[in-house]
Automatic annotation (TrEMBL):
Residues 76-279 form the Disease resistance R13L4/SHOC-2-like LRR domain. It is found in: Membrane. GO terms for cellular component: membrane. It is a single-pass type I membrane protein. The lineage of its organism: Eukaryota, Viridiplantae, Streptophyta, Embryophyta, Tracheophyta. Its main location: membrane. Belongs to the RLP family. Transmembrane segments: none annotated. This is Disease resistance R13L4/SHOC-2-like LRR domain-containing protein. Keywords: Glycoprotein, Leucine-rich repeat, Membrane, Receptor, Repeat, Signal, Transmembrane, Transmembrane helix.
């Protein structure tokens, strides 16, 4: 095997047998060409080349190796391009380099060309437009540049066009509107594709099912013609410069995914979200959208209230995100109809009033993000029903009352953020937050012991390498007691070994007087670690009134730091 050979994950060069004498002669040429290409394979661990011996019209090599000239040399080009009756070329997920050969445009019967995920450079050759039988073109994830060739408009049978993540810097050519057979077009992450979407885009391409335009510089409004795109399953246009209002989507009964976040959509008017009403309405004939499971409208300029009709879409099961807009009013009680929803994000808006108790009916919720609004009142007791909840962020609101006891012992909870509200009373014992990897209650001035308690637990976690949820802890032994019993004489049994390992490393690299200094430093490190443990225990005392103040804790840790760097 050549050391410079290129690993091939998948190669498929496919041609059907002919049925006439003329085609039989063509197949003989095809056979010789493919066998010549076979000679360039230096390894075939799955025995695919043996299959080639029996079926001369099919070359299939999985996880093989090509010699370096397999794509670039005249010999390999002859091997490929003499196979005139090839129908499929699959060279995806390899390490092919240099430019796409223009000779590809001479394989007249080619139906599938997949060269995605390589290191190809240069521009897409205009000769690709000569492949009149082509129905799938995938050239995504390469180092290509330039513009989208207008000649692609000649591909009258094309159904799938994937030219994403290749740094194209052009507008969508008008000729592409001739491709009425297109069902999938993906131009995502080109970063340079710009201009406005053609107003008749969805009229001239009536069979579109999936259109991906994410991460480009496309501007202007979403064409009104989208309102009639009855076959559309997915519309992805996030991270662009789209603006204006979103047209009615009421007729898109097959729509499953709508991702239009991080743009400039919306006008600041109260009717910005009216198109959501059209999603949830039940027209006499069309019925409501039953397929939509992902809806993300984040980071736009949407204003006005959230239409309650949107929550009648029981199909929303993955996530509904409206964060970082200017939505006002209250969260409709109809939110409780989304019983299958996995994540709800309405953070960073101007929503007010109480959090509706009906949120507790969203029993599949794993993430609930409501931070940065003007919600008020207590945390609804109905949230006790959210057994699968992993993230709960209610920070930066005007919520009040006591922290509910039902948050105690939540096995699934990973993050709990109640910071910057008006909660009052005592922070419950550490059992409340035992199962959360991060719990925040900062900025609740009427809350007793909250900040310093969380800080103390964090210190103990950092220096023991243990969490309050570890199996060794139970009702009779928690993290604080575990540390307290070990101080001062048995500190070596509870400390995370990492600090000691670092000191042992120092011992191995120093001799003589340096060794004495190292021993002194180790002693000082252990003394400082003991002091840190004392601070952690004092801050997380079960009795709020007996906890160390946050000011004293900071002062003590500052003193420990100074001693450590002496």
């Amino acid at each position: 095997m050549l050391s410079s050979s290129l690993r091939i994950n998948y190669i498929l060069l496919f041609s059907l047998f002919g049925h006439t004498a003329c085609l039989m002669r063509g197949n003989e040429t095809n056979k010789l060409a493919l066998l010549q290409f076979k000679s360039l394979i230096s390894e075939d661990p799955f025995g695919a080349l043996e299959f080639l011996e029996r079926h001369h019209s099919l070359l299939r090599v999985a996880c093989g190796h090509l010699q370096p000239e397999a794509w670039e040399s005249h010999r390999s080009r002859s091997a490929i391009f003499q196979a005139r009756s090839l129908k499929v070329i699959q060279l995806a997920h390899n390490h092919l380099v240099r430019e796409i050969p223009s000779e590809l445009g001479t394989i007249a019967k080619l139906e599938v060309l997949s060269i995605r995920n390589n290191y190809l450079t240069g521009e897409i050759p205009s000769s690709i437009g000569n492949l009149s039988s082509l129905h799938t073109l995938s050239a995504a994830i390469n180092h290509l540049h330039g513009s989208i060739p207008g000649s692609l408009g000649q591909l009258k049978k094309i159904r799938v066009l994937e030219i994403a993540a290749i740094n194209l810097s052009s507008t969508i050519p008008p000729s592409m509107l001739n491709l009425s057979t297109l069902t999938v077009i993906t131009l995502t992450s080109n970063h340079g594709t710009h201009g406005r979407l053609p107003t008749d885009l969805f009229t001239t391409l009536p069979n579109l099912q999936d259109i991906g335009l994410d991460a480009n510089l496309i501007s202007g409004s979403i064409p009104v013609s989208i309102s009639n795109a009855s076959n559309l399953l997915r519309f992805r246009a996030a991270w662009n410069k789209l603006s204006g209002t979103v047209p009615s989507l009421a007729k898109l009964s097959k729509l499953r995914s709508l991702l239009i976040f991080k743009s400039y959509l919306g006008t600041g008017a109260d009717n910005d979200l009216d198109f959501l009403s059209s999603l949830g309405e039940i027209p006499p004939i069309l019925g409501k959208l039953q397929a939509l499971n992902v809806l993300s409208l984040c980071a736009n300029n949407f204003s006005g209230p959230i239409p309650p009709e949107i929550f009648y879409l029981s199909s929303l099961s993955i996530f509904f995100a409206l964060s970082r807009n200017s939505s006002v009013g209250f969260l409709p009680a109809e939110v409780g109809k989304l019983k299958n929803l996995g994540a709800l994000d309405v953070s960073e808006n101007m929503l007010s009033n109480d959090i509706p108790g009906t949120v507790g009916a969203c029993i599949s919720l794993e993430q609930l993000h409501m931070a940065g609004n003007n919600f008020q009142g207590p945390i609804p007791s109905t949230l006790i029903s959210l057994k699968s909840l992993q993230w709960l962020d209610l920070s930066r609101n005007n919520l009040s009352g006591e922290i509910p006891r039902f948050l105690e012992g939540r096995d699934m909870l990973q993050l709990l953020n109640l910071s910057y509200n008006n909660f009052e009373g005592m922070v419950p014992s550490d059992r409340v937050f035992n199962n959360a990897s991060a719990a925040f209650v900062t900025g609740n001035d009427k809350l007793c012991g909250g900040d310093v308690f969380s800080f103390g637990i964090l210190l103990l976690e950092l220096f023991t390498g243990k969490r309050p949820t570890d199996e060794m802890f139970n009702e009779s032994l928690n993290l604080q007691n575990f540390v307290k019993k070990a101080l001062p004489g048995q500190m070596g049994e509870i400390i995370d070994p990492m600090p000691l390992e670092e000191d042992e490393y120092i011992d191995l690299t120093m001799k003589g007087n340096d060794q004495d200094r190292t021993n002194n430093r180790k002693s000082r490190v252990k003394e400082c670690l003991a002091s840190v443990f004392h601070v952690g225990v004092a801050c997380s005392n079960e009795q709020p009134k007996e906890r160390m103040s946050i000011a004293d804790a900071v002062a003590e840790l500052s003193s420990i730091r100074n001693k450590l760097v002496e």
